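Pasting two entries for a bug report.
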Amino acid sequence: MFWPAVDANRVSSPRPWSRGNNNMFSNVELPLTRDSFWRMAPRRNGGRTEIWEALREAAESEDLGRKQRILDVNNIRLGNRDMTICYDDTGTYVHSSCIYVFI
């Protein structure tokens, strides 16, 4: 199994994002959409529940250092530095999400 270099597994802040010029999330809609994603993700995408819980905790943290510690402790490897693609400690693809979960 190939693991990326240590620096390649460093989380970064996501790019600014919207659904389109005239289709922004409202202040009410965005938290509801995020919550729906996290509730459904383990059932829809499979994977271990504790990995999904760690990913949610990391995604909801505003501190990049804390995000990184959560990923490191749970042996989560990044496919993208913005956490939209992740792998668990066995190399199993466990997570792909829309960027709105992280903004």
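Entry 2 (this is the one that rendered wrong in the viewer):
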Amino acid sequence: MKPIQGSDGKPSPRMMMNPHLKRMSAFLAIAAAYLIVFKDTKVLRILPDHFTAASRQTVRRKADSQHWSDSTTSVSVANDAYDREPYLNRWQRRFASINNTNATSEGAYFFFKHMRKAGGTSLRSYFRDVFQYHGVSCTRDDYGRMKKRGKAPKILYVEHEFQTMDSECPLHDPRWERSLRVVTLRHPIERHMSEFFFSGPGTKVHIDRQQLYTNKTYTKELSTFLNENIPLWMNEEGGGRSFLDRYGEMEGRVNMYFGRFYTNNFQLRALAGCSSPDCLQRRHAGKLTPQFLREMTRLHPITNENTTMYSSSVPLCTQYFHKDHALYDPCAKGRTKRDECELGCDGPCFYPSVAWGPLDRSDVARAVSALEAFDAVLLMETFDDPDQSAFLADVLGVPRDAAFALTNHNVTNYVVHKTNKHEKTHFYRDLLSKLSPGSLEMLLAENDLEIEFFERAVGVNERKTNEWKRETRWQGT
């Protein structure tokens, strides 16, 4: 079926106003994306998704692991369909058929890909206010009531912080389309050094809350400390001996590397996880055992026979807001029974994926492709700017001038007070260039691919923001 077009080749007003044609167009775009990847697959399975008024049908295939693809082209094509959806009030459209008191079998998810030390705590506080604005309660008290009475919120909150995300999750996981998705990023060097001072060796140093690097009284002392400790911190390879002793060799682990420690190319690894045999073989040639591959494929959405694991929500295995902006995470607790939460937390992209191994530019492309599928891609450096605050408010269907708007959030590091815009965006790079330039060079060299990824993420943020500005005719504050 060919979409109705005007003389300029663009969809006609009739096309724009006809919901059936819009749904069909989105379906064909996504179907075409899957056929690019799975053209040699003999079995295609269509699973209807009646979740929202503007829901899209998703083409999924049932295939053996040798048919999996590591392509990024299909994700890019599918993302075009997502971006044709208006940004304004995506919350209402995505969750249109959800009644928070009348249970449905599927449930919906608010999915936050939380990069450590990139403003996640401030955003979690904001998201809790968004839930309250919409009359949706998803707190620890709700978890307690759900345990007793079996009734749970139907818009579930899931935060993906300590796991890597399969870059092809937007294609394979049916929970993705039942979700509203937000991710925030930060310049890699700023994020790494924030971690160093927040939970690494930097916690041993008293930091002046004013302009740290201009305080001449301890510049030499701090310079010595940085020059000695940053290289040691970078060489601990995933968290130091105690962490490795507890969990074993990290390259043999699935979904476990996001500790409060140094990990090179952190944000790139977080979005370029491997779950397909092709990708795993490229990253870990000669190291994969049949048992490891069986475990990876057993729980993958396209090979798992138990489709209810991905079509029905498990509120017991999701997360809840806690007091003081903390997160109550019952699915991550050791006491949780394995048979209750086999995937860990229940939500998009929580199935097994691997982040370890060598990276190259194909991983950058895969991570950017995954990034495109998010509804909002934020940067810590700018997300409280007026346009970014208004953009996120429109996507989440809340007033731009709400008391809890991001422009009213004081986004600061708990240790260092930023006194101006430049310090907010370049604080640690300026610090290292003055006190430990050798450490800065090491960090830049070892995280070059993550820096390339971040620069491209800035472009994604700008493109989505500009599309929203054209859609809403944004003229500034």
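Dev reply: Rendering is fixed now. As a check, the viewer should reflect this: The mean pLDDT is 75.
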